[in-house]
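step: validate -> pass
step: tokenize input -> pass
step: predict -> running
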Amino acid sequence: MSNALVGAVLGGLVAVGVVLIRMHAAKSRRIDTRVLPYVQATGFDWSTSTPTDRLNRSTQSRVSAKYLGALLNSLVTDSSVRRRLVQANASEDLDQFRVDQLRWAGLGAAAAVAFGVLKALSGEPIAPLVWLFLCGLAAFGGAVLRDQQLSRQANARIETINNELPAFAELLAFTVAAGLAPASALNRIADRVGGEFAIELRTCCDEVATGRPFTEALEAMAVRTGCEPVQRFVDGIVVAIERGTPIAEVLRAQAMDARAASHRNLMESAGRREIFALIPVVFLILPAVVVIAVFPGILGLVISAN
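step: predict -> pass
step: emit ->
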């Protein structure tokens, strides 16, 4: 009886924790509830906007199908893999990645085979069709895991470039304001500064040195990185060069915009991580406090009932 009662109490605590986290996640889902208190109000009527959590079932099914299609497209097509290899600045090419993906699939299938052999040796063999299905599923899972690892590497590098862009934009603005041409300023900064974005800048400078037009090299750099802030930064520079606008003022404005975008991204990231901050409070601290406060009374009731 005591074990059942303690289990019921612990189960109730876990259920309460899940409900609290779910309520907080639903409250913090909209971007205006997370970002608007930290930025200046712009007069936009947030009440008239339609949040994403109001999608109907058909829209949600379309979104799920879209994600599934993107997953299958990343596993089947070569263009997606090449793009992410470039974004991650990986040393391997497409063929090496496919071989590595096949190796991961083989490891998954080997794990499923080993599991079936162990079950057979223990006297509880798995049905052949089920075993074959598990092997295929494990092989597919290994290929998916390798694909997801590449995606994580590409996303991590894109995030690093996003964080480095404001400092590079300010350095470029100062260098151009000192009297250097944009191409020379970019080359000087790339040679003296480290980081992931500096690698892309050096590639851009190498392309300019081989005879490629400066604007085309910048646009190719934006395409390689796959980063929206870099794309906006490059677009501002290209438009300023084509229209003859003073490049120093444009770069200074671009640096300010990059700082503001970095601040907004930081606020959004902090808002998303609020949910993770509740996990130790709800599942560790709160249950310990409740158990310490309630368990002696429960134990006394159990002893008195017996």
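step: describe -> Residues 162-270 form a domain with the Receptor-associated Protein fold (CATH 1.20.81).
step: cleanup -> pass
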